Amino acid sequence: MNLVENRTTLRLTYCALGIGLLIALFPIALLVLNSLKPAAQIVQNPLALPEVLRWDNFTRAWADARFGATMLNSAILTATTIVLVCSTASLTAYVLARRKVKSWKIITFYLLGTTTAPIQLFLFPLYFGFARLGLINNTFAVALIYTAVYSPFAVMLLRTYFLAVPRELEEAAIMDGASHWQVFSKVMLPIVSPGILTVALIIGLYSWNEFLIATTFLQGAERQTAVVAFFLLSGQYTSDWGEIMAAALIVTLPVVILFVLLQRRFIEGMAGGAVKG
């Protein structure tokens, strides 16, 4: 009886996973399908197979959105943000995990508040302040804003990794004559590297797809990111949906490839972060 019940449960689980997979992959399949169609056929029936493969959608999208330059801008901005967030958040998380902080409840409330607060609350003061300082169209300045926005989440996640590391390792390293910086850089960082990789992937995804801050502070054409360039492809009265679908696929492809290559590390990192809070 138990064997029959287990098989039934297993089949139901596979069915549920299959349905979830179809729901998750359907938008991607529809995007690929429509990126190879002319605009007229997309408007007529977006679910139909393409009558003629329009590979020129990709070449026109690449040229019109200047993806050669805008994707490089996105890559520089994303990489800078990842370096800043991972370096500052790991140092902060290590201190909060290993030192007794009397005001920890206040810090927790602050981190949760800044994680959930919408960026629209700070957008106008930030813009006027950055304009007075001459930091509009400055990629590093935008990376600093991203760092301030994403660091609270990174600190709270990385703190759980440092808490899971036994204190005996740290104490043994100190007894061997290692300084606090050596303990952090030589002992702790290699152990929590899955967590840092997880943070890097999440922050990289957020930074690559971010639109509001990028379009507000990077107004020059030479500083535009790929997401902003993709948005500008849509005309006020008419839009070439085949070109837009091809551009959307080009923008999302680097993130999808990176996640597929690092998905095992990402899942291990997320699971490891839940060990101890």
From TrEMBL:
Record PROSITE patterns: ABC_TM1
Gene3D superfamilies reported for this sequence: MetI-like
Bilayer-spanning residue ranges: 12-33, 75-97, 109-128, 140-162, 183-208, 244-262
Membrane topology: Multi-pass membrane protein
One Pfam family recorded for the sequence: BPD_transp_1
SUPFAM superfamilies in the record: MetI-like
Domain ABC transmembrane type-1: 71-262
Location(s), subcellular: Cell membrane
Matching PANTHER family: ABC TRANSPORTER PERMEASE PROTEIN MG189-RELATED (PTHR43744:SF12), ABC TRANSPORTER PERMEASE PROTEIN MG189-RELATED-RELATED (PTHR43744)
Similarity comment: family membership: Belongs to the binding-protein-dependent transport system permease family.
Name of the protein this chain belongs to: Carbohydrate ABC transporter permease
